[in-house]
Amino acid sequence: MILHIPHSSTDIPDRFLGQFLLNQDDLGAEVLRMTDAFTDDLFSLPEVPRVQFPYSRLLIDVERFRENSEEPMATVGMGKFYTRTAHGQPLRRELAANEEQELLRLYDAHHASLERLVEMELAREGAALIVDCHSFPSTPLPCDQSQTRPRPPFCIGTDAFHTGEHLVRTAVSALGKSGYQVGIDSPYAGTIVPTRHFLQDSRVSSIMIEVNRSLYMDEASGNKLPSFASIQATLSILLADLEQAYSSRLKPEYFDAVFCGVVPGAGWPERFAIITACNPDGETVDDATNATTTRRLFERLAACGYDPWEVIGGSADARHQEAGFGVVCSLEAGIRLGREFRQDAIFWVEGDALSIINCANSQLKPLGSWQDRWLG
User: Fold this and answer.
1) Predicted local distance difference test score (pLDDT) of residue 188
2) To pair with 366 at 20 to 30 A between CA atoms, which of 13, 97, 280, 351?
3) What 8-state DSSP symbol labels residue 151?
């Protein structure tokens, strides 16, 4: 797990103050309004690395896309370089080319640090989870895309490719046990992923956690409330639950699975996934429920344009069997389908190599020869 904390700092070094058009008091008020105050203190877990931007987002916002053409907030003067305040007033003069380059070096250094930690996690664990740590004002700012009121106590931001449903369920459950309602991609959506891995590498997962500031601070003064410690404890439990869910180990019997069913008419494809919908979340359910979810999986595969064939996986003594399907699809698509149907794992065949993929973190473990596991 990696904690990403982009908006906790209020620091604008003196050498940059001349870029701003506001007087000292108004600039201070804008910094308070836009800072995710104390998120560097709220979000913490022992031995979990973090990437924290040391400057105010008003200087340069490392959470924004580097190119304005890709950043929706650039249309309101709040791309990586803020030119407008939250209320739409002029914030900053036009920057010279050398000034932009100096700030972009800060931006690039931050993203290089995040990418470096992700690469280290991938090398060590085979997967990486980013928790994007934020807070938000209790009432919408004029610049906000969502003006819905009232705002929930917590918000979870997701990405369709990089945020598995198991992570969302874990977060909602952890916060629900503490009595809090959660908005999913509302009032804020999305979560950060390094550009190198964005929509490319399913081993990299990410989820954004946003805290309503009224829970822990006086938004007018910027001071902590007595409830701060309680919210901090709630977030510690949430982070621990996310870490456990993400690093979950598969049941030993999964690694001994054998298979039978139908051989495709054209013979075995070069690569394919084996997916079941039985016994979601690793919990045994009755035959009727499994039959229903298996039918739903078949209908989902057909709707996606796949041509699935029957594959049954289970134990060598046939005491436990689960109906499923072989599917010619990408590995990433197979993982997403496994997550959609709340599976601990899917199997992947490439040539004669059989592997098991942990749906929680996309970790791949080779299991040997496919033909040795196929019973016909």
Assistant:
1) 97
2) 280
3) P
Is the same domain home to 292 and 225? no
Structural domain of 131: 2-246
CA atoms within 13 A of residue 304's CA, in its CB half-sphere: 17
Q: What is the CATH number of the domain that holds 10?
A: 3.40.630.40
- For residue 64, report the phi and psi dihedrals to the nearest 5 degrees: -80, 155
Q: Are residues 256 and 193 part of one domain?
A: no
Cis (ω within 30 of 0) for the bond into 152?
no
Judged against a pLDDT cut of 80, whether residue 315 lies above it is answered with yes
Within this chain, do residues 232 and 271 fall inside the same structural domain, yes or no? Answer: no
Where a domain ends, among 213, 246, 279? 246
pLDDT score recorded for residue 246: 86
Stronger pLDDT, 317 or 218, i.e. the higher one:
218
Total-model pTM: 0.80
> Closest Cα partner for 133 from 116, 151, 157?
157
Any alpha helices (H) in 134-227, and if so which ranges? 165-177
Domain boundary among 193, 213, 246: 246
- Cβ atoms within 10 A of the Cβ of 181, count? 10
Residues 225 and 123 in one domain: yes
Q: Report the candidate in 343, 326, 219, 212 with the shortest Cα–Cα distance to residue 277.
A: 343
Contact present, 130 and 206 (Cβ < 8 Å): yes
Per the structure, the count of domains in the chain is: 2
What is the torsional sign of CA 21, 26, 27, 33? negative
- Reported as a single tens digit per residue, the pLDDT across 102-128 is 999 999 999 999 999 999 999 988 889
Residue 117 in tokens = 């930690």
User: Same domain for 210 and 258?
Assistant: no
Strand (E) or helix (H) holding 157? strand 154-157
Grouping H, G, I as helix, E, B as strand and the rest as coil, residue 261 is strand
Q: Whole-angstrom Cα distance, residue 306 to residue 328?
A: 7
Chain segment 232-263, per-residue pLDDT in tens: 999 999 999 999 888 877 888 999 999 999 99
Same domain, 219 and 320: no
